[in-house]
Amino acid sequence: MKAVAIDGFTGSGKSTLAKILAQKLGFHILDTGTIFRAMAYGYLQSGLGEIDEKKAEKYIKTAKVEVDFIKNEQHTYLNGKDVTAYLRTEDVSQMASKISAFPRVREQYLTIAKNFAENYDCVMEGRDIGTVVIPNAQVKIFLTADENVRAKRRFEDVKKKDKKAKLADVLEDLKQRDLRDSTREVAPLVPTKDSIIVDNTDMNMEETVNYCMDIIQEIFSKKKPVNIAIDGYVCSGKSTIAKALAKKLGYKVFDTGAIYRGIACAFDYLGLNEKKISEKYIQKFADEIEVKIKFIDDLEHVYVNGIDHTANLRLERTSALSAKISPFVCIREKVLKIQREFAKDNDLVMEGRDIGSYVLPDADFKFFVTADEKVRAQRRFDQQRSRGDDVSFDKILEELQERDYADTHRDHGAIKQMPDSIVVDTTNQTLEESVKFCITEMERMGFEIK
Question: Looking at the whole model, is its pTM more than 0.70?
Answer without folding.
Answer: no
